[in-house]
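By convention, each integer encodes one residue's backbone shape. The lines below illustrate.
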Amino acid sequence: MKIVVLEPLGISAEEQKRASEKIVSKGHDVVFCDSRPADKDEVEARAGDADAVIIANMPFGKEYIEKCGKMRFLSVAFAGVDHVDTEFCRQRGIVVSNAAGYSVNAVTELVFGLAVSVLRNIPKCDCEARNGGTKAGLIGTELFGKKFGVVGTGAIGSRVCTIALAFGCDVYAYSRTEKEELIGKGVKYTGLEDIMRNCDIISLHVPFGKSTDKLISAKMISLMKKNAVLINTARGGVVDSQALADALNAGSIAGAGIDVLEGEPPFDKSHPLITAENTVITPHAAFASKEALYTRAVMVFDNIELWENGTPRNLC
């Protein structure tokens, strides 16, 4: 079986070898590409004869899938698969799996990095310290004792709830499915409008799709308290970006920590959140710790092995 890794997975050559050694030991051929393909013709040149293909977050629509004529399995080194035409894959009998859970710790930690950065004005304090300034006008607020709202209690959202409790927050959650384990820890499930209206920090952890497109709408943003902070490490399309930027610039809410916009980095400089007031932005980096990137590399090769053995997992 020929396996082609169509784009870099963010790990070293030595780590690539370790992550793939089990499947290579079974006689399979693994080809690592050191750059993202420039176009569909390059996709065909690289993976036209591949039985299994591995991608990360490169857009992978019908025009690319068609160029992988022998592909029977697509292993996505990402938790979300909204960048993949999964319906077309199904039509062609191509099995698709993702790397669910690989970045739970990494994303959770950045949530709190963003929250503390906004609440304590860390970027502005850093700038002042480097330029002979002081903390004047930059006194922030603590996480301790605040109402922390979590929208979506999947694996990452659940972990965020647990850490927020450890910070001494009063934690509220909104999700289609309530988890008894979280309730037992003291998490209070409530409605989305209640989260938006009452919480001091609101962290988003829902996938992007028809039901969550601009879930955090202008109406929802208008419900937020003046001292509230919104954290988005989910998907850019979950939020009405213009409405959020307008609220930030008007001082209607206190701040935002943003890791995702509607497109992938480099972000468009004209995007309204790029210049919004009291906003800390990272370039879709929440998932990208050294530990998480290696974990997902191992996972995508394990997914191929399990599929070959007739016991596929993480199906999309």
User: Anything to note?
Assistant: The longest strand covers residues 147-151. The chain has a mean pLDDT of 97.
